[in-house]
Structures are given as structure tokens and as C-alpha cells.
Amino acid sequence: MPITEVEGRRLRLSHLDRVLWPETGTTKAELLEYYATVAGALLPHTTGRLASFVRTPDGVDGQRFFQKRPPAGTPGWVTTTERVRSGGELMDQVEVNDLATLVWAGNLACVEIHTPQWRAADPDTADRLVLDLDPGPDRTVVDCCRVALDLRERLAADGITALAKTSGSKGLHLLAALRGATPDQARAYARTVARELEAAHPDRVVSRMAKADRAGRVFIDWSQNSASKTTAVPYTVRARARPTVSAPLTWDEVAAADTPEHLAFTIGEVPERLEEIGDPLAALLAPGGAGALPG
């Protein structure tokens, strides 16, 4: 097994030639190279947050599992934080705070990285709002873009600045920085906004959880603002048939979207996007950019 040094940490890498995405022949080595290349943009979105991983040790067509606890053999230098779960159970979780941790996780085939909308140091404060737009049958991410533009305008009316990214799967995520909110308040606000948009556009928007109601509509999932829920982080790879990425978008790209293919970015494309346009979600991290919920 090759040993490499990342930021002064020695890592033993394994099975670098293992194909994780059979459809495209993409290997674990390519996954690690991608994460190392985009780390400067990804890490600010994960630092200080508890990470959950989707692991696919035998590739995306094989067994997969959602991992929250630090796996056996986690190095002592990986930051972990103890969390109190519902029922009072204590559980450690990893924080992806640096490049070495990111590469270590990738070497374990932690393909996807998810975090909650709060920081580990302050779990009672929601500093992010998320609205997950999921296209129902006969709808696509292009329809999600139309709904996203309406949501952007609605949130702006409350002084909240929304930013967009692909989910890396079928839909779109809207994110906004918050201040002075609890997870319950963020969840209630997201639900209110989703219901308002459904009332205004019942032919193309639904806010109810029942899958039977989603045909021909875009579902606005407001529930991910719950303290117990997580969302795929910006720039994470997804465990789909192809190595697609949850890629930040400019609003011009959202407005101009005309085919789903134009919003499907893979690990081979995102690094060049970063070089050309920077991080469209940088404003999410800017000091003083957070909005307060009304009321």
C-alpha cells in the first residue's frame, strides 16, 4: 500500500485502482485527486460541522451504507466531536476540517459527505437554511430552476439571500446563511415558504411529503432544516451511476437552464469550473452575509 504525506499527516492509501463507478471506469485514485483539487472550495463548507458519509467500498453498484460514527482505525489526529442524540445517547462524529481528513475519508470510499445546518460548537443555532427541490415524475431539474427563481424572490422579500447548487442527483438545493435562528424556527419558516409557493402555483409546486402528490410537480422539501437531518455538502461527489457532483451554480446558469444535461457536472468538469468562475457559494461564507428570519 502506498504511503503519502498530506499536510504533515502520513496516510496509507489502498486499492487506488479500484473502480468505484463502473459505468465510467472512474477509480478511487480519481476520486482522491478530485477531492484534493477542490479542497480549497469544499472545506470551508464542512469545517466545524459533523459529517456523515455515504460509503461504497465495492463501488457504487455494490453495497453502500450511511456512516455517522468514526470507523474503526480512525487516526487520532482526525477531529471528532461528541454529540447527544435523541434519547440521550452519546455518539462521536468526524469533522472534515482539513485536507488530510478529506483524503483519509476518500480513501475509505466515503464518496458522499453530508452535514447538518448547524455547527458542532453550537447545535442549537441554525446558521443555514436549505430548501431541497426534487422533481416529481415528468419533471426535471429545469423545472426545479423555475421554482428556484420564485423562491429566490420570495426569500429576498424577507432579507434572505439564496444561493443555488445542483443536488448532484436529480434536483436543486437552495442555501442561505442565517443568524439568530434555532433549527425549529428554520424548519417552520422553510415549511411556511414552501406552502406559500404551493398555494401560489399548485399546478407545478407541492410541499406535502406524500409521493403520490408529486406527479408533474416540483417537491419543495423543507424538512432538511430539522436538527436531525443532513444535506449533501457543496462539491461532494454523489454515489450515482456517474461521478456527478453537487455543484454550486450562478443565478445566470439557473435562469438559462434548458436541459438537465447542462446542469450535470462530474468530477472531471468541476475543477475547471472552479478555475473559471470561482465558488458561486462564497457569499454563503462571507461575514455579515447572514439574514434574520422574520418575526
Automatic annotation (TrEMBL):
GO molecular function: ligase activity
Coiled coil: none
Keyword check for Ligase: yes
InterPro entries from the UniProt entry: LigD_pol_dom, MtLigD_Pol-like, NHEJ_LigD
Keywords: Ligase
Source superkingdom: Bacteria
DNA ligase D polymerase domain boundaries: 27-280
Keyword Ligase recorded: yes
PANTHER family in alphabetical order: BIFUNCTIONAL NON-HOMOLOGOUS END JOINING PROTEIN LIGD
NCBIfam families xrefs: ligD_pol
Protein's UniProt name: Putative DNA ligase
